[in-house]
Design a protein that fits this description.
367 residues; 2 domains; two-stranded antiparallel sheet; 59% helix
Length: 367
Amino acid sequence: MAKYIYLHENWTNFIWNEDKIRDIFGEIKYLQGKLNGIMSTVGFSQKEETLLNTFTFDILKSSEIEGELLNFDQVRSSIARRLGIETAGLVPSARNIEGIVEMMLDATQHYENPLTEERLFGWHNALFPSGYSGAYKIDVACYRKDEIQVVSGVMGKEKVFYEAVPQAQVQREMDRFLNWLNTDFSLDNILKAAIAHFWFIIIHPFDDGNGRIARTITDMLLARAEHSSQRFYSLSSQILVEKKAYYEVLQKVQWNTDSDISAWLVFFLTCMKNALLYSEQATAYILHKAKFWTKHKHTEINERQRLMLNKILDGDFVGKLQSSKWAKICKCSQDTATRDIKDLIEKGILQQEKGGGRNTNYELTEI
Protein backbone atom coordinates (compact mmCIF):
# COMPACT_ATOMS: atom_id res chain seq x y z
CA MET A 1 0.00 0.00 0.00
CA ALA A 2 1.28 3.47 -0.91
CA LYS A 3 2.51 5.65 1.92
CA TYR A 4 2.99 9.37 2.23
CA ILE A 5 6.55 10.44 1.51
CA TYR A 6 7.20 11.47 5.13
CA LEU A 7 6.46 7.95 6.39
CA HIS A 8 9.64 6.65 4.76
CA GLU A 9 12.95 6.67 6.59
CA ASN A 10 15.21 9.63 5.70
CA TRP A 11 12.43 11.07 3.54
CA THR A 12 14.12 14.46 3.25
CA ASN A 13 17.11 12.99 1.43
CA PHE A 14 15.52 14.30 -1.76
CA ILE A 15 16.76 13.15 -5.14
CA TRP A 16 16.03 14.35 -8.67
CA ASN A 17 17.01 13.80 -12.27
CA GLU A 18 19.51 16.50 -13.24
CA ASP A 19 18.85 15.93 -16.94
CA LYS A 20 15.20 16.89 -16.49
CA ILE A 21 15.96 20.30 -14.97
CA ARG A 22 19.28 21.31 -16.52
CA ASP A 23 17.92 23.07 -19.62
CA ILE A 24 15.10 24.90 -17.89
CA PHE A 25 17.47 25.98 -15.11
CA GLY A 26 19.70 27.55 -17.73
CA GLU A 27 16.72 29.31 -19.32
CA ILE A 28 15.76 30.81 -15.95
CA LYS A 29 19.27 32.16 -15.39
CA TYR A 30 19.22 33.71 -18.88
CA LEU A 31 15.78 35.29 -18.38
CA GLN A 32 16.74 36.66 -14.96
CA GLY A 33 19.79 38.35 -16.43
CA LYS A 34 17.79 39.67 -19.37
CA LEU A 35 15.04 41.11 -17.15
CA ASN A 36 17.53 42.72 -14.77
CA GLY A 37 19.34 44.21 -17.77
CA ILE A 38 16.09 45.68 -19.09
CA MET A 39 15.17 47.12 -15.69
CA SER A 40 18.59 48.74 -15.36
CA THR A 41 17.68 50.98 -18.32
CA VAL A 42 14.38 52.10 -16.79
CA GLY A 43 14.07 55.38 -14.92
CA PHE A 44 13.76 55.47 -11.13
CA SER A 45 10.04 56.26 -11.06
CA GLN A 46 9.19 53.52 -13.56
CA LYS A 47 11.27 51.03 -11.59
CA GLU A 48 9.48 51.98 -8.36
CA GLU A 49 6.10 51.60 -10.05
CA THR A 50 7.04 48.16 -11.40
CA LEU A 51 8.33 47.05 -8.00
CA LEU A 52 5.14 48.25 -6.31
CA ASN A 53 2.94 46.44 -8.82
CA THR A 54 4.98 43.22 -8.57
CA PHE A 55 4.72 43.04 -4.78
CA THR A 56 1.03 43.97 -4.90
CA PHE A 57 0.14 41.20 -7.32
CA ASP A 58 2.36 38.69 -5.52
CA ILE A 59 0.40 39.23 -2.30
CA LEU A 60 -3.00 39.35 -4.01
CA LYS A 61 -2.41 36.18 -6.00
CA SER A 62 -0.85 34.20 -3.15
CA SER A 63 -4.01 34.82 -1.11
CA GLU A 64 -6.25 34.13 -4.10
CA ILE A 65 -4.68 30.68 -4.49
CA GLU A 66 -6.19 29.93 -1.06
CA GLY A 67 -9.55 31.43 -2.07
CA GLU A 68 -9.11 34.75 -0.23
CA LEU A 69 -9.66 37.94 -2.25
CA LEU A 70 -7.88 41.02 -0.89
CA ASN A 71 -8.53 44.65 -1.76
CA PHE A 72 -6.07 45.81 -4.45
CA ASP A 73 -5.92 49.45 -3.35
CA GLN A 74 -5.39 48.54 0.31
CA VAL A 75 -2.55 46.12 -0.48
CA ARG A 76 -0.89 48.58 -2.85
CA SER A 77 -1.20 51.46 -0.38
CA SER A 78 0.25 49.42 2.48
CA ILE A 79 3.28 48.40 0.39
CA ALA A 80 3.84 51.95 -0.87
CA ARG A 81 3.81 53.37 2.67
CA ARG A 82 6.21 50.75 4.00
CA LEU A 83 8.65 51.16 1.10
CA GLY A 84 8.39 54.95 1.12
CA ILE A 85 7.12 55.08 -2.46
CA GLU A 86 5.23 58.27 -3.27
CA THR A 87 2.14 57.47 -5.31
CA ALA A 88 -1.32 58.89 -5.75
CA GLY A 89 -4.52 57.43 -4.34
CA LEU A 90 -3.27 55.88 -1.08
CA VAL A 91 -6.03 54.49 1.13
CA PRO A 92 -6.10 53.08 4.70
CA SER A 93 -5.50 49.33 4.90
CA ALA A 94 -7.25 46.70 7.01
CA ARG A 95 -5.37 45.10 9.88
CA ASN A 96 -5.08 41.70 8.19
CA ILE A 97 -3.72 43.28 5.00
CA GLU A 98 -1.11 45.21 6.97
CA GLY A 99 -0.03 41.90 8.49
CA ILE A 100 0.25 40.09 5.16
CA VAL A 101 2.27 42.97 3.68
CA GLU A 102 4.51 43.02 6.78
CA MET A 103 5.23 39.30 6.32
CA MET A 104 6.05 39.60 2.62
CA LEU A 105 8.30 42.63 3.03
CA ASP A 106 10.13 41.13 5.99
CA ALA A 107 10.93 38.11 3.82
CA THR A 108 12.06 40.06 0.76
CA GLN A 109 13.65 43.14 2.31
CA HIS A 110 15.53 41.18 5.01
CA TYR A 111 16.21 38.09 2.94
CA GLU A 112 19.68 37.48 4.39
CA ASN A 113 18.35 37.05 7.95
CA PRO A 114 18.02 33.45 9.18
CA LEU A 115 14.53 31.98 9.23
CA THR A 116 14.12 31.20 12.92
CA GLU A 117 11.14 29.69 14.68
CA GLU A 118 10.47 33.09 16.28
CA ARG A 119 10.47 34.82 12.90
CA LEU A 120 8.20 32.15 11.43
CA PHE A 121 5.76 32.53 14.32
CA GLY A 122 5.81 36.29 13.76
CA TRP A 123 4.78 35.75 10.15
CA HIS A 124 1.95 33.46 11.21
CA ASN A 125 0.75 36.02 13.75
CA ALA A 126 0.85 38.72 11.06
CA LEU A 127 -1.30 36.51 8.80
CA PHE A 128 -3.96 35.98 11.47
CA PRO A 129 -3.89 39.04 13.77
CA SER A 130 -7.38 38.33 15.13
CA GLY A 131 -6.65 34.70 15.97
CA TYR A 132 -9.32 33.62 13.49
CA SER A 133 -9.23 32.13 10.02
CA GLY A 134 -12.58 33.21 8.63
CA ALA A 135 -15.14 32.15 11.24
CA TYR A 136 -12.85 29.62 12.89
CA LYS A 137 -10.55 30.26 15.84
CA ILE A 138 -7.09 28.80 15.25
CA ASP A 139 -3.83 28.47 17.15
CA VAL A 140 -1.64 31.39 16.10
CA ALA A 141 2.13 31.88 16.36
CA CYS A 142 2.70 28.26 17.35
CA TYR A 143 2.77 24.90 15.63
CA ARG A 144 -0.55 23.09 15.34
CA LYS A 145 -1.78 21.02 18.26
CA ASP A 146 -3.95 18.65 16.21
CA GLU A 147 -3.77 16.35 13.23
CA ILE A 148 -4.66 17.98 9.94
CA GLN A 149 -6.10 16.87 6.62
CA VAL A 150 -6.23 18.75 3.33
CA VAL A 151 -9.70 18.16 1.92
CA SER A 152 -11.89 19.46 -0.91
CA GLY A 153 -15.46 19.02 -2.04
CA VAL A 154 -18.87 19.91 -0.61
CA MET A 155 -19.78 19.11 2.98
CA GLY A 156 -20.59 15.45 3.40
CA LYS A 157 -18.71 14.52 0.20
CA GLU A 158 -15.23 15.74 1.11
CA LYS A 159 -12.24 14.09 -0.48
CA VAL A 160 -9.03 13.79 1.56
CA PHE A 161 -6.08 14.82 -0.59
CA TYR A 162 -3.45 14.71 2.11
CA GLU A 163 -2.89 13.87 5.77
CA ALA A 164 -0.09 16.03 7.11
CA VAL A 165 2.84 14.94 9.27
CA PRO A 166 1.48 13.74 12.66
CA GLN A 167 1.29 16.55 15.22
CA ALA A 168 3.72 14.80 17.58
CA GLN A 169 6.43 14.95 14.90
CA VAL A 170 5.94 18.55 13.75
CA GLN A 171 8.46 20.12 16.15
CA ARG A 172 11.16 17.63 15.20
CA GLU A 173 10.49 17.99 11.48
CA MET A 174 10.47 21.79 11.65
CA ASP A 175 13.72 21.84 13.64
CA ARG A 176 15.32 19.77 10.90
CA PHE A 177 13.80 21.95 8.15
CA LEU A 178 14.99 25.25 9.71
CA ASN A 179 18.45 23.84 10.40
CA TRP A 180 18.77 22.82 6.72
CA LEU A 181 17.44 26.17 5.52
CA ASN A 182 19.90 28.17 7.63
CA THR A 183 23.06 26.04 7.42
CA ASP A 184 23.10 24.13 4.12
CA PHE A 185 24.50 26.39 1.39
CA SER A 186 25.43 23.65 -1.06
CA LEU A 187 22.51 24.31 -3.43
CA ASP A 188 21.71 27.18 -5.75
CA ASN A 189 19.05 29.26 -3.99
CA ILE A 190 16.56 28.82 -6.83
CA LEU A 191 16.72 25.06 -6.38
CA LYS A 192 16.69 25.54 -2.61
CA ALA A 193 13.53 27.67 -2.92
CA ALA A 194 11.77 24.87 -4.82
CA ILE A 195 12.79 22.23 -2.28
CA ALA A 196 11.90 24.43 0.71
CA HIS A 197 8.45 25.08 -0.75
CA PHE A 198 7.73 21.37 -1.11
CA TRP A 199 9.29 20.40 2.24
CA PHE A 200 7.30 22.99 4.19
CA ILE A 201 4.02 22.05 2.49
CA ILE A 202 4.58 18.37 3.37
CA ILE A 203 5.10 19.19 7.07
CA HIS A 204 2.09 21.55 7.13
CA PRO A 205 3.09 22.88 10.57
CA PHE A 206 0.28 25.40 11.15
CA ASP A 207 -3.49 25.24 11.57
CA ASP A 208 -3.82 27.49 8.51
CA GLY A 209 -1.71 29.68 6.23
CA ASN A 210 0.77 26.95 5.25
CA GLY A 211 0.52 27.66 1.51
CA ARG A 212 1.04 31.40 1.89
CA ILE A 213 3.97 30.95 4.25
CA ALA A 214 5.52 28.35 1.91
CA ARG A 215 5.34 30.89 -0.92
CA THR A 216 6.78 33.59 1.34
CA ILE A 217 9.75 31.36 2.18
CA THR A 218 10.13 30.82 -1.56
CA ASP A 219 10.18 34.58 -2.17
CA MET A 220 12.83 35.02 0.54
CA LEU A 221 15.10 32.42 -1.07
CA LEU A 222 14.56 33.86 -4.55
CA ALA A 223 15.63 37.25 -3.19
CA ARG A 224 18.78 35.55 -1.87
CA ALA A 225 19.31 33.98 -5.28
CA GLU A 226 19.33 37.44 -6.88
CA HIS A 227 21.03 39.22 -3.96
CA SER A 228 18.31 41.84 -4.23
CA SER A 229 15.28 43.03 -2.29
CA GLN A 230 13.74 44.16 -5.58
CA ARG A 231 11.55 41.80 -7.57
CA PHE A 232 10.14 42.37 -11.05
CA TYR A 233 8.25 39.10 -11.53
CA SER A 234 5.58 37.37 -9.45
CA LEU A 235 5.83 33.62 -8.95
CA SER A 236 2.54 33.51 -7.01
CA SER A 237 0.71 35.12 -9.94
CA GLN A 238 1.97 32.36 -12.21
CA ILE A 239 1.13 29.61 -9.69
CA LEU A 240 -2.44 30.93 -9.65
CA VAL A 241 -2.59 30.63 -13.44
CA GLU A 242 -1.33 27.04 -13.12
CA LYS A 243 -3.20 26.30 -9.87
CA LYS A 244 -4.71 22.99 -11.02
CA ALA A 245 -1.32 21.63 -12.05
CA TYR A 246 0.23 23.02 -8.83
CA TYR A 247 -2.03 20.90 -6.64
CA GLU A 248 -1.84 17.89 -8.95
CA VAL A 249 1.97 17.71 -8.84
CA LEU A 250 2.06 18.21 -5.06
CA GLN A 251 -0.45 15.39 -4.69
CA LYS A 252 1.55 13.15 -7.03
CA VAL A 253 4.96 13.69 -5.44
CA GLN A 254 3.70 13.31 -1.86
CA TRP A 255 3.32 9.55 -2.54
CA ASN A 256 6.86 8.95 -3.83
CA THR A 257 8.59 6.14 -1.96
CA ASP A 258 12.13 7.08 -2.98
CA SER A 259 11.97 10.85 -2.24
CA ASP A 260 12.32 11.62 -5.94
CA ILE A 261 10.98 15.17 -6.40
CA SER A 262 11.91 15.58 -10.08
CA ALA A 263 8.28 16.18 -11.11
CA TRP A 264 7.89 18.95 -8.53
CA LEU A 265 11.15 20.63 -9.53
CA VAL A 266 10.18 20.57 -13.22
CA PHE A 267 6.82 22.16 -12.40
CA PHE A 268 8.32 24.79 -10.09
CA LEU A 269 11.07 25.79 -12.51
CA THR A 270 8.67 25.87 -15.47
CA CYS A 271 6.34 28.07 -13.48
CA MET A 272 9.21 30.41 -12.64
CA LYS A 273 10.28 30.54 -16.29
CA ASN A 274 6.73 31.45 -17.33
CA ALA A 275 6.59 34.17 -14.65
CA LEU A 276 9.82 35.66 -16.02
CA LEU A 277 8.54 35.51 -19.62
CA TYR A 278 5.32 37.27 -18.65
CA SER A 279 7.25 39.94 -16.77
CA GLU A 280 9.52 40.50 -19.77
CA GLN A 281 6.42 41.13 -21.90
CA ALA A 282 4.95 43.49 -19.29
CA THR A 283 8.26 45.34 -19.06
CA ALA A 284 8.05 46.07 -22.78
CA TYR A 285 4.96 48.19 -22.01
CA ILE A 286 6.89 50.06 -19.32
CA LEU A 287 9.80 50.78 -21.63
CA HIS A 288 7.50 51.91 -24.44
CA LYS A 289 5.63 54.18 -22.03
CA ALA A 290 8.85 55.66 -20.62
CA LYS A 291 10.19 56.27 -24.14
CA PHE A 292 6.91 57.91 -25.17
CA TRP A 293 6.85 60.37 -22.25
CA THR A 294 10.56 61.16 -22.63
CA LYS A 295 9.90 62.07 -26.25
CA HIS A 296 6.92 64.24 -25.29
CA LYS A 297 8.24 65.73 -22.04
CA HIS A 298 8.06 69.24 -23.54
CA THR A 299 4.76 68.69 -25.38
CA GLU A 300 1.82 70.57 -23.91
CA ILE A 301 -0.71 67.92 -22.84
CA ASN A 302 -3.73 68.50 -20.62
CA GLU A 303 -4.85 66.15 -17.81
CA ARG A 304 -7.60 64.51 -19.88
CA GLN A 305 -5.17 63.76 -22.66
CA ARG A 306 -2.57 62.43 -20.18
CA LEU A 307 -5.18 60.17 -18.59
CA MET A 308 -6.24 58.66 -21.91
CA LEU A 309 -2.71 58.29 -23.26
CA ASN A 310 -1.62 56.45 -20.10
CA LYS A 311 -4.59 54.10 -20.41
CA ILE A 312 -3.58 53.27 -23.96
CA LEU A 313 0.11 52.89 -23.10
CA ASP A 314 -0.67 50.65 -20.11
CA GLY A 315 -2.87 48.40 -22.21
CA ASP A 316 -5.87 49.29 -20.02
CA PHE A 317 -7.97 50.74 -22.83
CA VAL A 318 -10.40 48.15 -24.22
CA GLY A 319 -11.73 48.35 -27.76
CA LYS A 320 -11.46 51.16 -30.29
CA LEU A 321 -10.62 54.72 -29.27
CA GLN A 322 -13.54 56.98 -30.19
CA SER A 323 -14.54 60.47 -29.11
CA SER A 324 -17.64 59.09 -27.34
CA LYS A 325 -15.49 56.79 -25.17
CA TRP A 326 -13.08 59.65 -24.51
CA ALA A 327 -15.96 61.85 -23.29
CA LYS A 328 -17.33 59.09 -21.06
CA ILE A 329 -14.00 58.21 -19.40
CA CYS A 330 -12.89 61.84 -18.96
CA LYS A 331 -16.40 62.95 -17.95
CA CYS A 332 -16.41 65.78 -20.44
CA SER A 333 -18.58 66.85 -23.35
CA GLN A 334 -18.37 65.32 -26.80
CA ASP A 335 -17.07 68.64 -28.18
CA THR A 336 -14.28 68.76 -25.58
CA ALA A 337 -13.31 65.16 -26.37
CA THR A 338 -13.20 65.95 -30.09
CA ARG A 339 -10.99 69.01 -29.45
CA ASP A 340 -8.62 66.93 -27.26
CA ILE A 341 -8.27 64.29 -29.98
CA LYS A 342 -7.83 66.84 -32.78
CA ASP A 343 -5.11 68.58 -30.74
CA LEU A 344 -3.18 65.30 -30.33
CA ILE A 345 -3.51 64.59 -34.06
CA GLU A 346 -2.01 68.00 -34.84
CA LYS A 347 0.85 67.18 -32.45
CA GLY A 348 1.52 63.90 -34.25
CA ILE A 349 0.55 61.70 -31.29
CA LEU A 350 -2.76 60.29 -32.56
CA GLN A 351 -3.94 59.43 -36.04
CA GLN A 352 -7.21 58.30 -37.54
CA GLU A 353 -7.44 54.56 -38.16
CA LYS A 354 -7.83 53.52 -41.78
CA GLY A 355 -10.99 51.64 -42.68
CA GLY A 356 -12.73 52.59 -39.46
CA GLY A 357 -16.20 52.02 -40.88
CA ARG A 358 -19.18 54.08 -39.76
CA ASN A 359 -17.47 55.35 -36.59
CA THR A 360 -14.21 57.26 -36.55
CA ASN A 361 -11.52 55.41 -34.60
CA TYR A 362 -8.14 56.72 -33.49
CA GLU A 363 -4.80 55.14 -32.56
CA LEU A 364 -1.31 56.15 -31.45
CA THR A 365 0.91 57.05 -34.36
CA GLU A 366 3.61 54.84 -32.78
CA ILE A 367 1.98 51.42 -32.29
